[in-house]
Amino acid sequence: MSEVKKTPAEQATQDLAAGMDSVNLINKLVVANEHSEQIDKSVQVNYKHLELVLARENVIADASDKTPYLNAIAAGKAFAPTA
Predict the structure, then answer these.
(1) What is the pLDDT of residues 42-79, one digit of tens each?
(2) Domain extents for the chain?
(3) What does the alpha-carbon distance between residue 20 and residue 1 come to, in Å, rounded to a whole number?
């Protein structure tokens, strides 16, 4: 069975939807304002994931509002900066 090839726009939509999971997790953890090694690491992994998603060519070309992703990255970096 052959794999169905997605258009760049379809892939961008999928990438941004997956990224929204990271946005929601970062926002939830930042609002809770509790720190532990595991929580801080989770926030770091998720904001780095968002940075990678936003750097993809198909996502850059997509006209969707990226503000929630950028805000989550900024909040995550302020909450759990990397060393």
Answers:
(1) 999 999 999 999 999 999 999 999 999 999 999 999 99
(2) 9-79
(3) 30
Buried b (16+ CB within 10 A) or exposed e, 27-61: eebbeeeeeeeebbebbbebbebbbebbebebbee
> DSSP string spanning 29-70?
HHHHT---HHHHHHHHHHHHHHHHHHHSHHHHH--S--HHHH
pTM: 0.91
* Cβ neighbours of residue 7 closer than 8 Å, sequence gap 6 or more: none
**CA 67 to each of CA 4, 20, 50, 78: distance values in angstroms, whole numbers, following the listed order:** 30, 11, 12, 16
- Cα separation, 55 vs 51, in Å, equals 6
Pairwise CA distance, residues 80 & 60, whole Å: 26
